Amino acid sequence: MKKIVVCTSWKMNLRVTESIEYAIKLDDFVNKNVPDNSEIEIFILPDFLPLYSISKELGKSRLKYGAMNCFWEDKGAYTGEVSPMFLREIGCSYVMIGHPERRKYLKEDTEMINKKLKACLRNNLIPVLPIIEMEKESDRKLTCDKLKDQLLSYIDGVDKREINKIFIIYEPAWAIGTSNAAPVGHTYQIIGELKDALDKEFGSSIGQKQIFLYGGGVRIDSAKEIMELDNINGIGMGKAGLNFKFFTCAIKLATELENKLRNREK
User: Fold this and answer.
1) Cα gap 86→246, rounded to integer Å
2) Measuring CA to CA, which residue among 176, 168, 127 is closest to residue 151?
3) pLDDT tens-digit map of 199-213
4) For residue 240, which phi and psi values (nearest 5 degrees)?
5) Domain 5-265 is classified in which CATH homologous superfamily?
6) Residue 7 and residue 145: Cα distance in Å, rounded?
7) Cα separation of 100 and 98, whole Å?
8) What is the C-alpha to C-alpha distance for residues 252 and 246, in angstroms, rounded to an integer?
9) What confidence score (pLDDT) does residue 60 get?
10) Low pLDDT (below 70) residues in the chain
11) What is the DSSP string of 147-173?
């Protein structure tokens, strides 16, 4: 049965107290509404400032947390940067690497993203890696080729035994902020092509085991359709995840899907 993942990165939106309150409220929801035997991964990526406080509140909770960025070195004279080793020390499990806003506003390039990804793996953190489809083009082969090149350049030099530790988020940039997800058939084909590219590059059916999430213009109805695709593992939300009701609805959908898949296997 496929792994199901539901996550949200809050960007620079919630104040410190708001972030802590959201995390506590969400933890309570997960404890009350997600069965003990569930294997769904649910995590939040808050701003750096509340992370330590959230780590104290959540402790060994089933709700996991991480950061929206990190540096590529563990220690040193890198003023203002945040160490992946220190993030791991406070219990972070995930770090988002190479978000398109950081590429746009902070001028992060492929080399930086590659080094950050390797730093996360080195510190036993799960890199959450967005792969961006900038424009909706009529030539799907051209789109797939661009996305394959992007993905393979970001994971260049990563040991093939580590590839499946990465969570990849397919993000059609043209859908972000629109509340309209990319067509389900389009998403299914893109993910299929990326999985095939990983198989071709690394062998051993690595691509078929790879965790892929969808991010971009998610609504509850589209979230259900997307999560039910057999080659997608879940949803990664930005703005939508700031809405507690929306995010918890997505978690409920995930638990319903998990039950359906388990019953199918019986």
Assistant:
1) 31
2) 168
3) 999 987 899 999 999
4) -60, -35
5) Aldolase class I (3.20.20.70)
6) 27
7) 6
8) 10
9) 86
10) 177-180
11) HHHHHHHHTTT--TTTGGG-EEEEEEG
